[in-house]
Amino acid sequence: MKGNLVILALSMALFVLMLGSFASAITGSIGNARMILYPEVGFWGTTIEKTILVKNVNNVSVNVSLEAANETFAKMVTILDSDFVLLSGENKNARFEINIKKVGDYEGKINVFFKPTEGKGSGVVLSSTIIIYATENGASDGTTDSSEENTSQSSSDNKNSTATGQNLQDAKKVNFNPLYLIAIFPIILIIILIFMLTKFNRKKKRR
Questions:
Q1: Which residue of 21, 146, 162, 186 is surrounded by the most CB atoms within 10 Å?
Q2: CA atoms of 62 and 147, how far apart (whole Å)
Q3: pTM of the model
C-alpha cells in the first residue's frame, strides 16, 4: 500500500510541475497581421512608414524582436524598433520602413518574436504579412500615401507557433492547449486510485 501511495504522490507532483511549465509559457498578440499597401512610386522611388501593434498579454515582461522573414524582403525593409521589452499589459507600435525603387508587386513577412526576459521557457512567434502593389506616378519626391487592411493575430489562433529556446522559426504549428491535460488528468488519477483501492481490497480479502 505504501508503494501505491508513493506512486500516487509522484504522479500528483509531476502534474503540478507540468502545470507550472504551461503557466510560464509565453503568449503573443499583434495587430496589423495582414497589410495590403498601394503606394505610388516616383522617379526616386518611395518609402512607406508603417507600424505593427505588438501587445504583451502575459502577466510578466517579455522580450520582443522583429525581423524580416527572408533575405529578399529584408533588403527592402528597415526595422526601426527591432528589439524592445514590454511590461505586462503594455503595447507598442513597432516602426518599420519599406523602401520601394521600382513599380511591381511584392510580398513578404515580418516575424515578431516573444521571449521570456529570463531567457528560459517557451516563446512564440507571430507573422505580419505585407502585400504591396506599387504603381507609377509622376511625383518626384517619392512620398505617397497607402491604404491597408488590418487584422489581428494572437497565439490562440491556428496561424502561430510555440517553441522553446531557439526553435522559433516555424510559424505554422498549432498550439497545444494545456486545458486538455487539465481536464483529462483528474480522470486518470481517479482511475489509478480506484485501481489501487481494488488491489488493496483483494489483498485484504486474501489475508
A1: 162
A2: 31
A3: 0.61
